Amino acid sequence: MATAGDARKSLGALGEQIAVDYLRRHGYVIRERNHRTPMGEIDIVAVDRKTLAFVEVRTRRGSEFGTAAESVTPRKQQRLIQLAESYLQSCPESFRNYRIDVVVIEFSSSNRSPRVELIKNAVEGS
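Predicted structure:
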């Protein structure tokens, strides 16, 4: 029997694939997906022109618990900055420019195609 956790993981995986496809169509080169560190996970690491982009994917079905964009709380933003800095320290290449982007994916109750929004440089301090 499928649990709510399974449904959430499935929705998250679908959202990440939609985000990867969207980013590629907009010129991003995907370097890694689901990069794990002891502090957490970076959903997507990509290059947009000469800038390294750490991409957080937020997927929601409806807005009962707030929008996907609202789910990137100040605490989550701090964690994303820490994850990006950790990645940069272990990265063999040096990138002078980096930023943290958020891809928001929202499915409506009618299950039409989801709304996809890219928020570049979404996290201050990156």
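Summary: Helices lie at 4-25, 74-90.
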